[in-house]
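Q: Hi! First time doing this. I have a protein sequence and I read that you can turn it into a structure. Is that right? Here it is:
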Amino acid sequence: MKNIKVMSIFGTRPEAIKMAPLIKELEITEGIESRVCVTAQHREMLDQVLELFQIKPDYDLDIMKEKQSLNGITTRVLNNLEKVFDKENPDIVLVHGDTTTTFAAALAAFYKKIKVGHVEAGLRTNNKYFPYPEEMNRKLTGSLADLHFAPTIRAKNNLLKEGIKEENIFITGNTVIDAMKYTIEDEYAFENEELNKIDYNKQVIMVTAHRRENWGEGIKNICKSLTEIIDKNQNVEMIYLVHPNPIVKKTTHEYLEGIERIHLLPPLNTKETHNLMKKCYMVMTDSGGIQEEAPHLGKPVLVLRDVTERIEAKEAGTVKLVGYSKENIIKEANILLNNENEYNKMSKAINPYGDGNASNRIVEIILDNLRK
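A: Yes, that's right. Below is the predicted 3D structure, encoded as structure tokens:
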């Protein structure tokens, strides 16, 4: 029986983190010929993950441009993948989540009548502009996919409501939990020396914010909130990992640079980020992946958005939606900083995203379905 050729395609750091353990599993599985193609929708941040997991892509489309538009990303992915598919003719293409790379790669595979497997399928806010463009990227990819790897029962039910056949939906857990097996260390020393100097016996808050929906007033309100939280809580230190997007970077430095006990750092590599999460007291973020990662480490998450696709985390009590209202962010942060019972409720809640074996399940499902 000939090997099944599986091509994994991704282009951003979050995709890479979640696809990496799956790729490692594909590489060691008998009966599978693994190929990796990166679009490099994000360049530097993607390369950090590839280096960490020792993944060498077979194809690197290197599409990133300065001030790139969504139209530009989509068309460059489509045009470049046509050549790759003509050469490799994979049996199935795997895409992840909700990026523009994800949607464009699924569409390119559909045009070539190649099967598509969607990892982390079925998350929904049911508002096409929140998050933008991710909600529609994910939904459109779902319409094109043949195999849907849903992390939770809620994600499966979302797909069923949209008419996806149950026989094509598989609950696997989330591969990001698998990834943490490779990154977390008990006695971890940071590469970034500033992080080694911080006293983690204090209430250290890790902060990230980058989504388009928060550009402008949202980021400004978040920054104003952080200054007040620091001012009113002397035991708090903040580590703000500043996204390189020029809009985010300019506003963040304008409001927060030079403020005592707020450390503005560039994004860390995945291993540094995961181990910082482990050491910190709590997390404030608008990232989707962090809403899954931090609860696995027992860290409460305040989500700096009005909506989330991670409804399971909200229902489990591991995350709380606080939006980007200054008053609400300050109120909810102060509760976790000053109320031990409320902190424990969140930190000890059970993470709904699986047991760290999602990658193995996905590989077994691919083998079973494509051999048929």
